[in-house]
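Tokens help. Consider this.
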Amino acid sequence: MPGNGPKYYPCVLCNKRTKPHERRSINKSVAKYLNKSFLITPKQEDKICNTCIHKYYVQETKHSSVVQHRLSDDEDYVPPAKRRSTVLSSPPSVSLSIPSTSKSHSYCFICKKPGPKLIVVPSQARFSTFLKKEVIIPAGCRCCPGHLMEDNFTEDAISKINCTNDNVLLNRSSIMDLLKKLRSTAIQNEQSRIDFDTDKVLSDSDFINLTGINKDNFNDLHSYIKDLVRNTPTRSTRTSLGIFLFKLKSGISNKVLSTIFNISRSSLRRAISCVRQALVKNFIPENLGFKHISHDDVVNQHTRPLAQTLFGDGTNTQAILVLDGTYIYIQKSGNFHFQRRSYSLHKGRPLVKPMVVVTTTGYFVTVLGPYLADSKNNDAAILKHMFNTNVEDIKEWVQDNDIFVVDRGFRDSLELLDDLGIKAQMPSFLSKGQKQMTTDEANASRLVTKVRWVVESANARIKRWKYLSHVLPNKQVPYIGDYVCIVCGISNKYLPPLSPGCDNEEVLAAKMLHLSKNVNTLKQRVEEENFERRKTIWKEPDNNLDDFPRLDEEDLRNLTCGVYQIKLSTSYIQEHLRKLPNSRSSRG
């Protein structure tokens, strides 16, 4: 009986029986075309086949190159298995001379491995392959999951992709989609190559050059601010962090940064301010300050055995800290009172002084200040202020017999340190009328310098962030302490120690202690034979130097107890060679 069998859907134009995936509904534009070209007036329930409606598209394209017809969703029939797919597009009809791969469903198109554990190639992977190799991968192509990583092919998989066809057949929808993606990529590359949101754009070395830390460390640092800094239409939280670190690392002005990142200067200033506040709140308390690390951790993890042997009492319970002030230069202020307080007679320019406290390995324990640079705030006065105000509970942290290694600028605070039970190690002074230190004083100063140099290197590490080595505007003075603390916290968490030490440090320290107590026989010979009163005449040596002692680098290290003098020896030799009138250097 009628109605019991399958429903028959003939094409209204060619009268061909259409299958479900071939039939199309007839909208007003198609009905007008059929009535005008074929004198056919379709009914509402009539259908048209895919081939015939394609003729309609070709005919319309000839009349207008800008007309694009797309059948609406409510007029298209979508098979049940494809309910979630996008709007149906025109059939492939444009042939392009672009290499393409095979379209496979039952096997991987890269390694030809059969299923069933195959996945459809994501559109991002197909597009990136086209950008890198100019190869079209047909939609619906399948491959092994191991060839993909985060919706992109691995480098090994890209190298194994083979082209089976010299051309490809595409429809208008695919071509338009490809053009839109190419345009979006071109705009993104035109705006900025510096993209912190996409891991694939910048390499690990790029992150180090731009931000001072590698990609993994950048991601970890971002976790401290992502809940406090909000995304905006012009910048994400990752971009804001990248701008902040790039500013500190390079010292480039906001005007140039605005051009590089293609955002306004006001947005740039807000990004820097928000990231600074977020890092001070979440990052700094965990990585800087007396409260972030215990006394025992400093002794056991951040104290060199050489320092313990030179200055310790053998119990290995004393914390050895090295203190020094560093300089951050600022502009001359129009406020006369602040101008006087920030002017340094020693440097002859306005500046502020953060007080840096490090361990003997170069680990930043804390950074205090910054303090003003006038005579009321020399290093000794700053140290007294630290203990009198008990900043960061320093009195509770420091224990009896702890050791502070300082320079001569702390001489006025030695009495206070002694009252607190802290031992101070400081280079010796020349007494009034004394022209040269005694042997014991010179050796004691050398022992102090062997440990104290690390704080100078720590100050240099701070200045490697170029923003802090430049002259800062006065409006940034209230935030200088935050910037220095952030840089030191990043150094503690992500950068290697400045002075990790070596395996035989105890032996080297014992040798230095032994040599420091020996009699200076060279001094005695100079005084006895009056060598200090004779003039030294440099001349070219004879060709016969067989009797001259030949020492390798290891022998020189043993003599000098380090490498500093070895590095300077070449410069000293060149200086003397330039003084020789008949030397080759003077003739050349």
Q: What stands out?
A: Confidence is low (pLDDT under 50) at residues 64-89, 583-588. The CA atoms of residues 179 and 486 lie 45 Å apart. The first strand starts at residue 23 and ends at 25. The two ends are 115 Å apart (CA to CA).
